[in-house]
What does this fold into?
Amino acid sequence: MDIEQLIRQELADKRHMQTGWTEPVPRVQAGIRRRRRRRYTVASSVVAAAVLVGLGAVNILQDRTPEAVTPAQGTIAWTDTPASLPNLTRRSPRPDVRACTESDLAGKPWAESNTIAASGAKTYTVLIANGSDTRCTLGSAPQLTALRSGDGEPTALAASTQAAQHAGAQMPATVDPGEPVRLDITVTPCANAAPPTYSSVAITIGQHHVTVPGITPGCEFAVSPWYVQAPLINAPLTVSMSAPGTVRRGSTLTYQVTIANTADQAFKLNPCPVYQQGVGEVTRTYQLNCSTTTIPKHASLTYEMHLDVPASATPGPSKVTWMAALANGTVAIANLATGGETVQIVE
Amino acid sequence: MPSWDAPPSFESYVRDRHRELLRFAYLLSGDAHLAADLVQDALERTGMAWRRVHKHDDPGGYVRRVIVNRYLNRLRSLRRERLTDATPEVAHVDSEPRDEQLWDAITSLPKQQRTVLVLRYYDDLSESQIAATLGCSVGTVKSNASRALAKLRAALASRDLDGSDV
It folds into this structure.
């Protein structure tokens, strides 16, 4: 018998018969039901997971899509309730770091004339930007030099020391890259002080004398320490203003301010904020009309504002400023990018 | 979820064919328990797809393919596979005493070769049908069959040398 026949015989042998199941159909049917339940559970879980993932994705997308701010319905009237500003919150003083070097302050300084005293003394704020890419600290007192009238010799000025003239001045001056360090220089004109006259005032930085353009000659000088002006802390509100292009001096300027809440939760105006408005050098502080105490999320409120333009105001362009101050010392400044809106003051 | 009841045609198929399928699975695996698992698994899968399988008029081929594939892919079968000369458990024992050497030689073949032998000499499938069932080429079927026969011949020749009869 050949091998193939032997294999056929072996495989067909009765020894290999198997006992059948007593209840084959219920046995298989139960298994199929079990499989269907498992498949149903898995499918349900997958669908539930897909729905959850979908909902999560929708939420994320909604979070990423800024909601449009609902414009205010109507304008809230102006109320004449004078107030005073609370203590405003500013950025915390930063710790001292490495001393600023000559190369850090290699840029050109510039001066801003801000006050003229009754005596005729002018106080300039001089700014020099930190041109490096790291933070540095200026702790030493600034040294001034100027050209003496008559012989034109560069002379170290015996300037008296004065306090910084600005609110929020922090000393020693730790300046970030690109941020300006400041000092105030007060020049007393020679009509009120003894000659000689000094001109071309320069600041000594390292081994160099850097002339500050725009400072008038004078006979006596006072200088403040180096300082940085810490910025105010902004409240989570966006304020815009809309003013007419021109206003007659001596009249009342009526304009509108819109406070928008772009956050995902309502903003409570409680305690009621105050605001400071100004044109030119004149500022006034009032209580906001808090007849509406809440700005809903993604909504805005529009307020009517009245501002008296002095009869003595100089005709020409002038900036109208508006800033709300909240009880916690944070502020909301109108037209933050430009600091206000320019109006033309006319006769 | 609605309850599932076996269609009458599936019920009669299971009732009529499950013994035959158990034997087929046993010849493949050499293990009665594994054979029962394979047949149960294959019938459940067939039942799930019964409407489609029945429509094609070849439920036997479908079930056989499932049993073979599950057997060849089953990692557990590696542990259950009998590679020794121990006699597999059987349900019925022939009254005549028999030489177990051929069966031992068959069960000691690699799975692929044993599957080819069972399909060829038990199910009487052609080489092309075996190739379709296993999802391989006819050449692979031929080589597996040839190697299996060579091993069995060698096993029987060694038995003859020992002085035994076939």
The interface with chain A takes residues 1, 3-6, 11, 14-15, 18-19, 22-23, 26-27, 32, 35-36, 40, 43-44, 47-48, 90-94, 98, 102-103, 106, 117-118, 121-122, 149, 152-153, 156, 166 of chain B (CB under 8 Å).
